[in-house]
Structure to design on (323 residues):
């Protein structure tokens, strides 16, 4: 069994950037992911526009060419695929990491393929860049598991002339509500706080606020969702309990890193913030040889790290290994 210099778990932009920096440093990297290449971006809304400009998404000193000022999901997916091809990265996709055995300089990553086969890969160092988009923050209410309830938004066209409830008050919820409204759905936005989140994209905020003010998107603030039935959402606020008709429910309440997996590696997490113990310069965790990259470093504070700054974590890790 060949031994890789570093195994990156996670094939998103941060994991790819780490592998690219390793390749440029003369190392042999391997990238493993339980899904497809850039699995999180693949599951973004189909017409999503990034909050940033193309150059801030670039990895490996390769230019990202966009037709407009801000790149869209499809452009990003093509770009990262081309980056992996350009650097001839070795990838194992659709393989779920079961565990990491061994120690610094002699790790074994055990995976399971789509067909159920168990595979093993030897690596001197490990980089964890598993992101957070796979694990939604659940509401923990009756009916959340019903088939018409989704924690991910894709497209609006199925819901023309239908009642849709969007739960949440940050960027994903605001954009989904607007897209649904503009494609003929009857939308109600439900948010537990008194106002929309402060991190909403600057061009989205006036749009959603004006749609709410005009009554084109109904909005219920300071409102708790109590239950979901097959055709209604039960909510409660200062005015009492109300039942909202809903053919579809989008519970866009955010996501979190896979804390259980990170802890299974022996990495210590702060009990409150869930931020991992690590060296700020090398990004090495309290477990020698295991480095962390990307949004997993932020713990529960997932809004602190994006592709724009997470893409540099690979440079930090590889620079520390070279040193």
């Amino acid at each position: 069994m060949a031994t890789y210099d570093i195994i990156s778990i996670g094939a998103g932009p941060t994991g790819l950037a780490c592998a690219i920096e390793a390749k440029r440093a003369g190392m042999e990297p391997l990238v493993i992911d339980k899904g497809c290449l850039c699995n999180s971006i693949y599951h973004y809304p189909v017409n999503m526009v990034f909050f940033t400009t193309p150059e801030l998404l670039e990895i490996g000193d390769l230019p990202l060419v966009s037709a407009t000022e801000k790149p869209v999901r499809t452009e990003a997916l093509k770009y990262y695929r081309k980056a992996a091809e350009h650097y001839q990265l070795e990838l194992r996709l659709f393989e779920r990491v079961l565990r990491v055995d061994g120690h610094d300089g002699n790790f074994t990553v055990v995976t399971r393929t789509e067909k159920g086969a168990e595979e093993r890969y030897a690596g001197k160092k490990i980089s964890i860049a598993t992101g957070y988009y796979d694990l939604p923050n659940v509401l923990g209410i009756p009916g959340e598991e019903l088939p018409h309830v989704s924690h991910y938004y894709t497209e609006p066209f199925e819901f023309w002339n239908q009642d849709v409830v969007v739960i949440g008050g940050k960027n994903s919820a605001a954009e989904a509500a607007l897209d649904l409204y503009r494609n003929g759905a009857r939308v109600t936005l439900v948010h537990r706080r008194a106002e929309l989140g402060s991190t909403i994209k600057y061009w989205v905020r006036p749009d959603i606020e004006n749609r709410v003010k005009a009554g084109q998107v109904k909005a219920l603030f300071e409102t708790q969702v109590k239950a979901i039935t097959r055709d209604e959402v039960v909510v409660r606020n200062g005015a009492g309990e109300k039942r909202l008709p809903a053919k579809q429910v989008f519970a866009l309440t955010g996501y979190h890193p896979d804390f259980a997996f990170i802890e299974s590696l022996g990495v210590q997490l702060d009990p409150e913030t869930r931020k991992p113990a690590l060296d700020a310069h090398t990004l090495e965790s309290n477990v020698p040889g295991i480095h962390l990259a990307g949004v997993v470093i932020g713990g529960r504070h997932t809004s602190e790290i994006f592709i724009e700054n997470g893409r540099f974590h690979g440079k930090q890790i590889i620079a520390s290994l070279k040193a």
In short: The first strand starts at residue 3 and ends at 9. The chain has two domains: 3-134+255-322, 149-251.
